[in-house]
Backbone:
């Protein structure tokens, strides 16, 4: 059977009333879970899996429901990022950088609808990528060993140079702080505990969620609290909810580029939506930001991370379906779901369970169309969130953030840690130290260190392993270009 | 109105009295299973197996919910149960051979294996050594000969750090083959799935992992399983794979899974739980549920489970000392 025939077969399987209903339900729940700070796709899928199994849904239907939740979360995360400057999930951290300034300018409506649209484009690019190139991409993912991942992380760090604003020292300081936070916990290579102060709560390191919520949510609560005390007026909301055609055209290439980048990064097991969105945001900023509008409410800076995180979520399905290995934390749970249904995840999934695989791929198209249709009219309701007075909104965000973290980790230690980090972040913001480098340092530094050490333990300490493959050499070249090209270009242009 | 309220109050009071007169026989209320890791991992799987079996076999009336206390292969859950929930008799906590190994190495804070009440072991996985399908090594002996000749040619990948179960398995085999484990090139990945991905990509030459996770890849023809670390050959799809013992390496590594109760649970409550698990494990339908989750038969409850875990921790302690992981 040709790919297209299989896809239409999959569509036929997915378009039963039950599956359509589940896709709609999953999309809705996913959007909601994604929008709540603290809860992300991994929690949503983990909560729903046992329920789906308990009510005896067939395997394909259960997967469709869970996958819809997964996609929905990538949509939902943007809502709180744009409106409240609190990322709803990890993939939405970069969304707030331009999304929130837009909301402050009274453009919350267009920002929400445009980011919904770019999310949709990202997901569709991923869908087309899986259908056309799935098995081929699996081979691309396998090319990445520790040395290649390390080069990729160096590239991501090189992208970080585009974030350097007026004050490079502060950006550097933020990045280093993130790196420092990443060193806490069991050392993945040797099993030695670092900076845990003999407290078991720190043995796995500082949880990613605690850092994200602490840095962004808690510090935002403190900022809002201050503003309320100072008696600041409420946010303006302009009448327009939909983006214009001109706005769509202005962001079109950014959205497409970010979708492709996001998808390719998502396909790699071990990287995810947060890295994909960060890399595409920073690449776009480097490529396009001539007037310095990024970070002050540029629509392109909003479209890039949203397209990328959805594309990455789709990309993570590739290693799961073609190799039987998880591409992200959430797909690891989806793989676990398969074993519950007595389906052995592995490279034979495509040939042994074609119905299951193709109806899952088809559901990706269906769920995303639903999400777009669901998300555009809802913008009006979301925007109304801004009309909630601060005295009600701020305690609300606080409660949701704390409940979110407690429901996942179940210890008060993490709540204290989160509050501590929030106060630290608030102090940093007072000194104009940007927070994005902190979180990027935290995420990238952890992976970078581990991959470097893995590479060196493979080679027995020989540094040449880092440039032994064409992939890593290409990535090193890209990283060098990213770091030095702007300075060179400026010099060239500066000449008469 | 007042009369209705008053009669309602009387009824409630009566109900409470009836309730308390029945309280002699302990019954877990709002039963809970604590998984000491994030959703989706081995502890989660262990909890869900018990939750489903206990409920399906009508041993508990309310469904058992699974909660998560991630950190340190169960260390956070262990400490929480001992310090904050010592009397909580409604919660069982999942543990594995990995938790025992960390207890043995003193990585569970200041508490040792005598700090909780070991309830049951309900199944086990076994270690496995695998290579990629196009690997030149056809047997464990060939792999070890190559390792001995040039350690840089055989890089081991695994899902755990140095000192973890995966490392122990590889190190014990290497030692028996006359190779110093410290000279072995060993790379720790983020979980067994990532290690197998690296094997498929040719970044490492062998993986020290678990039997159950190798089945799908073996069936797909992507990898070859050189040995399983069990006493006898495993049933089912892995029946054709020889044990390490058959090939002359006396290494058996069960990754057992089970539950413990908080330290101050009374003897009577402990007995009730033991009897629930006895009945669960004896149910003929249990084997199928267990196999669905990639676990092989291994059942111990009550005193047997307690003795087994303590002996296992002591054994791990010796191993860790031998390997130079403990001073």
Residues:
């Amino acid at each position: 059977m040709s790919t297209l025939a299989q896809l239409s077969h999959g569509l036929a399987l997915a378009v039963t009333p039950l599956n359509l209903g589940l896709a709609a339900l999953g999309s809705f729940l996913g959007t909601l879970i994604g929008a709540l700070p603290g809860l992300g796709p991994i929690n949503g899928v983990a909560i729903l899996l046992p329920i789906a199994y308990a009510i005896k849904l067939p395997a394909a239907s259960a997967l469709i429901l869970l996958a819809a939740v997964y996609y929905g979360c990538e949509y939902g995360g943007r809502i709180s990022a744009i409106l409240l400057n609190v990322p709803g999930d990890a993939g939405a951290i970069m969304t707030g950088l331009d999304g929130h300034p837009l909301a402050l300018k009274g453009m919350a409506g267009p920002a929400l609808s445009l980011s919904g649209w770019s999310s949709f484009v990202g997901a569709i690019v991923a869908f087309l990528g899986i259908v056309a190139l799935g098995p081929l991409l699996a081979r691309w993912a396998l090319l990445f060993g520790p040395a290649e991942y390390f080069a990729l992380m160096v590239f991501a760090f090189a992208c970080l140079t585009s974030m350097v604003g007026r004050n490079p020292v502060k950006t550097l300081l933020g990045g280093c702080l993130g790196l420092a936070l990443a060193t806490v916990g069991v050392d993945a290579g040797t099993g030695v505990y670092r900076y845990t102060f003999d407290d078991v709560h720190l043995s796995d390191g500082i949880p990613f969620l605690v850092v994200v919520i602490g840095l962004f949510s808690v510090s935002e609560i403190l900022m809002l609290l201050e503003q309320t005390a100072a008696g600041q007026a409420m946010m303006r909301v302009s009448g327009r909810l939909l983006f214009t055609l001109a706005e769509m055209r202005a962001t079109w290439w950014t959205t497409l580029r970010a979708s492709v980048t996001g998808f390719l990064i998502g396909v790699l097991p071990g990287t995810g939506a947060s890295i994909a969105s960060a890399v595409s945001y920073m690449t776009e900023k480097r490529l396009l930001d001539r007037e310095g509008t990024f970070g002050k409410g540029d629509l392109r800076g909003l479209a890039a991370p949203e397209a990328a995180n959805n594309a990455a979520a789709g990309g993570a399905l590739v290693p799961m379906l073609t190799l039987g290995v998880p591409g992200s934390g959430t797909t690891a749970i989806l793989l676990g779901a398969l074993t519950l249904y007595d389906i052995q995840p592995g490279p034979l999934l495509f040939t042994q369970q074609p119905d299951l695989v193709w109806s899952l791929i088809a559901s990706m198209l269906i769920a995303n169309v639903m999400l777009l249709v669901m998300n555009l009219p809802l913008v009006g309701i979301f925007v109304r969130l801004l009309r909630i007075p601060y005295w009600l909104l701020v305690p609300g965000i606080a409660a949701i953030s704390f409940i979110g973290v407690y429901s996942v980790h179940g210890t008060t230690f993490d709540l204290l840690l989160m509050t501590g980090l929030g106060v630290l972040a608030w102090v940093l913001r007072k000194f104009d130290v940007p927070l994005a480098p902190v979180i990027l340092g935290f995420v990238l530094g952890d992976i970078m260190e581990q991959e470097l050490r893995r590479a060196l333990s493979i080679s027995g300490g020989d540094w040449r392993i880092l440039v032994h493959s064409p992939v890593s050499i290409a990535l090193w070249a890209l990283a060098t270009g990213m770091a030095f090209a702007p300075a060179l270009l400026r010099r060239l242009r500066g000449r008469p | 109105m007042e009369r209705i309220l008053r009669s309602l109050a009387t009824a409630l009071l009566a109900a409470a009295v009836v309730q308390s007169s029945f309280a002699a026989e302990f019954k877990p209320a709002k039963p809970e299973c604590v998984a000491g890791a994030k959703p989706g991992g081995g502890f989660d799987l262990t909890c869900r197996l018990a939750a489903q079996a206990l409920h399906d076999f009508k041993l508990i009336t309310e469904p058992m919910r699974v909660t998560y206390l991630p950190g340190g292969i169960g260390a956070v859950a262990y400490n929480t149960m001992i310090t904050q929930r010592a009397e909580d008799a409604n919660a069982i906590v999942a543990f594995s051979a990995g938790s025992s190994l960390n207890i043995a190495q003193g990585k569970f804070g200041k508490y040792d294996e005598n700090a909780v009440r070991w309830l049951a072991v309900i199944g086990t996985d076994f270690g496995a050594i695998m290579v990629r399908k196009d690997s030149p090594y056809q047997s464990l002996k060939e792999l070890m000969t190559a390792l001995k000749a040039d350690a840089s040619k055989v890089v081991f990948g695994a899902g755990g750090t140095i000192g973890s179960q995966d490392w122990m398995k590889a190190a014990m085999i290497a030692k028996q083959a006359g190779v110093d484990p410290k000279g072995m090139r060993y790379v720790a990945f983020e979980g067994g799935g990532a290690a197998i991905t690296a094997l498929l990509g040719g970044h490492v030459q062998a993986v020290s992992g678990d039997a159950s996770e190798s089945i799908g890849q073996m069936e797909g023809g992507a990898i070859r399983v050189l040995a399983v670390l069990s006493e006898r050959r495993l049933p089912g799809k892995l029946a054709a794979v020889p044990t390490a013992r058959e090939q002359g390496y006396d290494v058996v590594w069960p990754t057992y899974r089970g539950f413990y109760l908080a330290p101050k649970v009374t003897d009577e409550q402990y007995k009730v739980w033991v009897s629930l698990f006895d009945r669960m494990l004896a149910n003929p339908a249990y084997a199928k549920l267990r196999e669905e989750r990639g676990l092989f038969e291994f059942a111990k409850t009550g005193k047997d489970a307690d003795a087994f875990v303590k002996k296992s921790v002591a054994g791990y302690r010796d191993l860790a000392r031998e390997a130079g992981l403990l001073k």
